[in-house]
Amino acid sequence: MGGLIRRARKISIRYTVGTLFLIATTLTALVAIALQFHFGKQTSQEQLLSKLIMASAAISEYVSEMELSAVSNARILKTISMADTEKFSQREIRDLLVEVLRDNPLFYSIYYGKPNDDFYQIINLDSSPVVRQRLHAEDRERWVVINIDGSGAQRTRATRYFTDRLSLTRIVTEPSNYFPTQRPWYSTAQANKVNKTHPYLFQHFKITGQTYSIKSRNAVIGIDIVLSSVASKLSTQALGLGVRQDVETYLFNREGEILASNFNQVSPNESSLPEVQPLVLSEPQQQIVRQIKSLKVSNQTDWFPYDFANAGEPQGYTIDLLNMVAQMIGIKLEYMNGFSFEELSDQFQKGKLDVLNAVALPQGENSALSAPLVLDKPALLKAENVQGWPKTVAVVRGQQWPLMNEPSVRWIEFEDVNQAVEAFRAGRVEGFYNAYQVLKSVNLTGLEQQTQIQILDAQPEIPISLVMSPQYAELSALFNQALAQITPEQLTWLQEKWFSGHTTFSRWVPYSILREVSQQQEQYGRMLPITVADKDRYLYLVPVSDEQEYLAVLIPQHLVTEQVVAQLWKSLSMTVGVMLILLPVAWWFGTPIVNPISQLIDETHKIKRREFEDVKLVDSKIKEVSELSGAMTDMVKEIRRHEKSQEEFVEAFIQLIAGAIDDKSPYTAGHCNRVPELGMMLAKAVEESDEGCFKDFRFANAKEWREFRIAAWLHDCGKITTPEHIVDKGSKLEANYNRIHEVRTRFEVLWRDAQIEALKAQLKGTPKAQAERACKQRQQQLQEDFAFIAQANIGSEFMSDESLQRIRTIATQTWVRHFDNRLGLSPLEELHQPENMKSPPVKEKLLMDRPEHIVHRERSTHFDPKLGIKMEVPEHLYNLGEVYNLSIRAGTLTAEDRYKINEHMISGIKMLDALPFPKELSRVPRYASTHHETLKGTGYPRKLSAEELSIPERILVIADIFEALTAADRPYKKAKPLSVAVDIMYKMACDQHIDKDLFLLFLKQGVYLEYAHMFLPEKQIDKVNIEQYFQQEKVA
């Protein structure tokens, strides 16, 4: 792994030069890009700030113009209406108001209402797309004139649609329950000033807006502005930022109430109500519903989360619940807002409202109280450190709560929840008393850790219900019936929506920092980095009117850098493109260095291939490269000298091993030295042959020749482990010495025993002649038996079954041992002695296979499968039994002895496999370990077939056998004449023991004769008729 890592870190000189060039240019480019980013970011901020300044100025101008126009036009219209010098017709009033609307396209409508509830209104359909949509106007229509008059059931609304040139297109007449005197703009109007309402819902068109109104002599004049027209100015497109979803824009007043926004604060689950099933009504109940066209329902300003208005839109728990009930009954609800709770209660008492929503009032004589819409606990908002009741507590005027008669508390009434909370924040009161869900939802930003909400558990839950006018008592029962049909799942949906705290919907700006910055004049018109809702933003805030209204824009900080980053990517792409164009130039810069270095690399490849003679000096103008080339050629000379000395040392060491093996035993004589010579002679003959299968055989180079030569020298290297007494075993009873002498001694004992028996017989009265004759007969038999045993011990003849039986018969003769054979033994010999041996004198057999003759194996005979050894292993290491050894049918070796000798191949394989031969000598272990294989797969140690034996391996088989047959320096056999050796080998070739083609080439090329003249004595070299073998091949 370390080598891989080191190689991975190597880089070329050309790459280095090119990389350095790229690094230098890249660093220069990065510095330039970094500077571009820095100044580009500043420029982007300045451009964005410039856009916001222009947009805020336009919005400010728009709002101011709208404010100024509305106020001035309202006053002008009042002045005109109070003039006595001229009476105006309806047409003239229409044309006058149309001209005002033409001159003031920001106005949604102009109207007036009289004390008798007559109402006249002109609407500009081009003031907002929402207006045209809500009024279902056609594209050709521009103006809408609305007249409402009459009383009771006769009260109607006539809606006339006009083109731009005031041509009437259609008239729509319908009943109306709209009464201008009940609207906020009418009730709050003053004669000496123009009054501006809070955002509220325009009743007959359900559009949210604001009204500028002023009281005239006989009427109240109003000018409407829809908030959608202001909100359009707050869009990201109007701000010059394109279409974006991550920019928030708010127009709000000093209390933090949102007047307009581009940001939809209603979460998806708040946009629709759960599906409800229509209530099954009886015929009388259906008649009640048909008689009531619609109900006017109160809508408070800020009693969140039950009943409140968001930019004039009715919202809240009870609003949703009422809408669901209205769908179930099939009745229409018209919400009225813009009034305080006290004012709404007063209008309800006067009959101007049909339903008073979300109240906690006991049922009275003049009201129909519904079943509870929801239950809530009374609670008290107070400072964290206040115990018990605070001294001053705020309440909303008109609301009645338990314990409001507490004598220790001074109750201070406020118009709405917002005023009460502001008083609490300002410290004018110490507590605020209301429903728990209301207090939990108030805006306490910055005071969370300093306040607490105490639930008054001792008090019963407060039922929040509807109050209907007495005339709708029967309808109240229908409402209660519908409320009872609301499912638990639907109630859970409402509670999750409004009470869980997940509702993102509010009439207030969502971030307290907007109100805080609005009070810091030094921060106006700046890009302030802030973090809100875990997001990094820029805040831009400016006042837009004299009415303490503010514009706030929240911009993601990444918006500032988007254009800069885009420009940077463009610059980076161009830089990369230029660098890619210059890359060949950088590549060319390395040529004067790389070319000679490449030539040096080519020379190193020659060194790697050991082609030292082909290594040349590389000429270069670069001094260091030239010196490196000279050093390389000097190194090559030294490597060549060192390699030659190493090769000589290795081959000398190999020959030393071979010589040691030959010197170890005279039975191998010079075998290890002569086989390489014969093998090389035969290999040269094969290379020179162009016949048959040998025409394509060649050693590729001198390295392969050396590989073959070393393998020939090491072919019997395993014999260094073979015990000498096994290699030298010339007789059957030999085991370090010839045990025939022990047997002969026992015969001598029997010889003496025969003489003793004869003397004992004479003492018992047997005639001397008879006793001597019996003694001579016994001794003669002993002589013959010993001669037979001695001849069998030599192993020169094949042992027949009769001979083996005679050995067993002779072995049964007994003699008496008088001496303890356990004395004088080595510790190892003592371990082999049986424990139950009898003490002398002991009668023993003449020849025995004793237990101690068995030598067990101490090492495993399991061979590594990769070595491919397939030799049968005898059970015992040695068996020295006398009868067992004398019973060998041919030769002098037992199966154990034969395996021990053949084991030299296994030892050789293991020795050679353990040596780290270089690549050019990788086949040495294979060549050196296959010279005992046969073509028919009966050889050892691997039992290879002809297909698995290469030509070099077959050459060593022939060389090994021929040398063994002709060797004249082995004491255990006579050297065979040349002709006999050749004839034996031919028979072996016919038996597929050796390669016949190779053997015939061995004869044809005269290799056998050349070898004989070099290593055999003259008397051994007889005439060999090799033609007979070729003739036999032709016949075959």
UniProtKB/TrEMBL annotation:
SUPFAM superfamilies: HD-domain/PDEase-like, Periplasmic binding protein-like II. InterPro entries: Cyclic_di-GMP/3'3'-cGAMP_PDE (IPR052020), HD/PDEase_dom (IPR003607), HD_GYP_dom (IPR037522), Solute-binding_3/MltF_N (IPR001638). This is Phosphohydrolase. Keywords: Membrane, Transmembrane, Transmembrane helix. Residues 814-1017 form the HD-GYP domain. CDD domains: HDc, PBP2_BvgS_HisK_like. GO terms for molecular function: phosphoric diester hydrolase activity. The chain crosses the membrane at residues 12-35. It holds the Pfam family HD_5.
